[in-house]
Design brief:
- The complex is a heterodimer of chains A (243) and B (79).
- Chain A is built from ten helices and no strands.
- In chain A, 69% of the residues lie in helices and 0% in strands.
- The two termini of chain A are 43 Å apart.
- Chain A has two domains: 37-139, Rna Polymerase Sigma Factor, Chain: A (Orthogonal Bundle), CATH 1.10.1740.10; 148-239, Winged helix-like DNA-binding domain superfamily/Winged helix DNA-binding domain (Arc Repressor Mutant, subunit A, Orthogonal Bundle), CATH 1.10.10.10.
- In chain A, helix 2 (39-49) crosses helix 3 (53-77), helix 4 crosses helix 5 (116-139) and helix 5 (116-139) crosses helix 9 (199-206).
- Chain B has 79 residues and is mostly helical.
- Chain B has one domain.
- Chain B contains five helices and no strands.
- In chain B, helix 2 runs parallel beside helix 5 and helix 4 crosses helix 5 (55-71).
- Chain B is elongated.
- The chains are: A mainly alpha (243), B mainly alpha (79).
- At the A-B interface, helix 1, helix 2, helix 3, helix 5 and helix 6 of A face helix 1, helix 2, helix 4 and helix 5 of B.
Chain lengths: 243, 79
């Protein structure tokens, strides 16, 4: 049943993404007035779009820079995974190679609305996230904890009177998760929202994209908010029981 | 596992949320505006809403802010 739902998710979200691309006004932010491209960015673009030794030198310089950025980012995120040493370096190298490839293929779309480096480092962040997600499941094969909300600060920090009200709220949430979400929405919500599974790791597990997982999570959240509203609970939920 | 966020953030679903793909397309402008002391959430409300509720894109955003601060000035002849 879940497999069928995942298959349906893939086809639905391919369509959703196509709509996003074809109709950017539906979701995209407004384009700001574009300042002239700064000299350093212009030098990067010139080097990447020319040919010969100047191009090769620019690509080599960019690879070295992206590798430093990737190593820094991998180290920044390494606390969330039990990965170290050679594996971290491998992740940084792979993220560098793939982000360089993405940058070279998309350089024509760089319009100078930020520094070139800021535009380019986005690809490093995305590739590092994706590649670190591959390592997540190796150490996290344990079953997901469906009672994870016992650790919610709302519940733990509340007074005894609030505690009782919050218990009822959480019971309503649990009923909504069990009864109102689809199997896939439930799986995504429990993994991402309750168990903090990295979205890229979960996307890889399901063979889909981060965007598709987020859309499912978003729909699940909206459904749960509607269910709680129907049960008499209105946001902000942190204020429930405190009046 | 670390302590969970509040229930409000757990159920955050802002109708202006831009989503991951559209957010990625504007992330570099958002970060530069923030580092310049601006208020990117005003010009990019959809991305601001998204960063508040998408853990993956928020991690990318935090990494991009840090990388831009440290490595943002690099040019092809200075690396």
């Amino acid at each position: 049943m879940v497999k069928a739902a995942i298959s349906a998710l893939r086809s639905f979200h391919e369509g959703w993404l196509a709509v996003t691309v074809e109709n950017p006004s539906r979701v995209s932010e407004p384009e700001p007035a574009r300042p002239p491209m700064d000299d350093v960015s212009r030098a990067w673009v010139a080097g990447l779009t020319t040919s010969g030794p100047a191009h090769e030198g620019c690509v080599t310089a960019l690879h070295g820079l992206l590798l430093r950025v990737a190593r820094h980012e991998v180290a920044r995120r390494s606390g969330s995974l039990r990965v170290q040493g050679r594996e971290l370096e491998d992740i940084a190298q792979q993220a560098t190679d793939d982000s360089l490839m993405a940058i070279r293929s998309k350089i024509a779309s760089f319009r100078g609305d930020s520094r070139f480096t800021t535009w380019a480092y986005r690809f490093v962040m995305f590739e590092v996230s994706t590649k670190m997600g591959r390592h997540f499941w190796r150490d996290h094969r344990a079953t997901l904890d469906e009672d994870a909300w016992e650790q919610m600060p709302d519940l733990r920090s509340s007074s005894p009177d609030q505690h009782s009200v919050h218990r009822e709220l959480f019971a309503a949430l649990r009923r909504a998760i069990d009864q109102d979400l689809t199997a896939l929405q439930r799986r995504v919500f429990v993994a991402i929202a309750l168990n903090e599974v990295p979205m890229d790791a979960f996307a890889r597990e399901l063979g889909t994209s981060r965007n598709a997982i987020y859309k499912t999570l978003f729909d699940a959240r909206r459904k749960l908010r509607a269910s709680l509203s129907a049960a008499g609970y209105q946001p902000p939920f942190s204020a429930v029981g405190s009046q | 596992m670390s302590e969970l966020p509040s229930m409000d953030s757990l159920l955050a679903a802002d109708s202006v949320d831009a989503g991951c793909a559209a957010g990625f397309e504007a992330l570099h402008r958002y970060v530069e505006e923030e580092l310049a002391g601006g208020q990117p959430a005003v010009a990019h409300p959809g991305l601001a809403a998204h960063l508040a509720s998408c853990p993956a894109c928020r991690a990318d955003y935090l990494g991009l802010v840090e990388a831009t601060e440290i490595f943002g000035e690099a040019g092809p002849s200075t690396t």
